[in-house]
Amino acid sequence: MPSVEFWYEFASTYSYPAALRIAALAEARGMSLVWRPFLLGPIFVAQGWRDSPFNIYPAKGRYMWRDLERTCAAMGAPLKRPEPFPQPSLLAARVALALEGESRSDFSRSVFVAEFGDGAPIGDRATIGALLAACGLDPAATLERAESEANKARLKAECVRAAEIGIIGAPCLVTGDGEVFWGNDRLEQGLDWAARQG
Amino acid sequence: MPSVEFWYEFASTYSYPAALRIAALAEARGMSLVWRPFLLGPIFVAQGWRDSPFNIYPAKGRYMWRDLERTCAAMGAPLKRPEPFPQPSLLAARVALALEGESRSDFSRSVFVAEFGDGAPIGDRATIGALLAACGLDPAATLERAESEANKARLKAECVRAAEIGIIGAPCLVTGDGEVFWGNDRLEQGLDWAARQG
Question: B45, B54, B63, B65: best mutation site toward chain A, by most A Cβ within 10 Å?
Answer without folding.
Answer: B63
